[in-house]
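Entry type: protein chain
Record version: 2
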Amino acid sequence: MKLLYQIFILLYPLAARLIAPFNVKAREWVRGRRNVFKELNQFITASDKPVIWMHCSSLGEFEQGLPLAEEMKKNHPRYRLLVSFFSPSGYLVRKNHPIADFITYLPMDSRSNAKKWMDTVNPALVLFIKYEFWHFYLTAIKARQVPTLLVSGIFRPDQLFFRFYGGFYRGMLKNISQFFVQDEDSKTLLTGIGFGSQTSVSGDTRFDRVITIAHHFQANEVIAKFCGSHEVIVAGSTWSEDDKFLHHLAIANTGLRMIVAPHDIQKERLEECLTFYPDAILYSDYHNAFKNNIPLTEARTLVIDNMGMLSSLYHYASIAFIGGGFTDEGIHNTLEAAVYGMPVVFGPVYDKYLEAVELIETGAAFPAEDVVELEQIIRTLLTDENHRKSAGIAAKKYVAEKAGATRKIMDYIQENRLLTS
């Protein structure tokens, strides 16, 4: 397995360079790593304050780590926070986020990169959010005896750690000081391979994050104008496959308003959304017309062409549709919607997401296998107000009861004096 891993880390950057001329994300993945160590060194040498290093795969993991980052910055201001991303999807959206003192890409895993990174950063504490286990980085961290926490981890029996041939990957886990996992099943799996004594069921820090976002909600007069008195479906992080299903729903329900926030906001994808939905307009165009009192023919679908708005858009929804469930990737964040107290609907690929499973069990979420079932579910929710309200109440209650993971992790950090004031 180690040989296969080494082949992967050699081929991945090569593949990224080969497709970079034709793929925006690959091009950014390559370009963004060109001066990482130069910029990292400038950041480190600018101050003698110790560093906390938080690594996130992408945007979702950053949002997951943010509540913990905020608490550490508030309680331990003598430390600087360094955030690294693997994916451009996270880095490009959050590269200027004020919580971090420095945000960068993580160079591809290798013995030389890991040594250079650790020699430069010399972190006091390392946080890996949810997943991404890099062999050489974790080995280098352990060699320097730096405390390393896995935050909001979740494990499944089909992962390589739990296969008879997964010894190499189990070896990576030996470099983690403490696992904070989302559920008892994850702890049971880790206990079965010898990590029970260093595993705590803390829950998921995303619950704390979405509660904070909802608490600080600020009204958007443009969105409010678009919604008016209509029933509204907010479709978040949609892929083409999702839009093909929602297309039928939007056409059949003329009194319905749709707010569609595609997962990818490149020009071609936005144009595709405009063709899928009736009377569709880009948010930027609608916003400009509203602010400048420019008359518009009435729009029935608003296509969001920016990043960062989605979590607040759910406030305006009667029903939330979460994208990704009609793709192999699986659904995106259901909690951003559930916290506002509304029914959540998505496609059939959701089983890897604990919160989605639990929302279904509480009567707050509804999976659809195909377009016929999707339309039936949404039609029922729109026409049966009591059903819709009870689902919304269940959603909000579920989120509230799951809060507190951040506090549990901070208590561990403080009790073990991993950071000093």
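Comment: The two ends are 42 Å apart (CA to CA).
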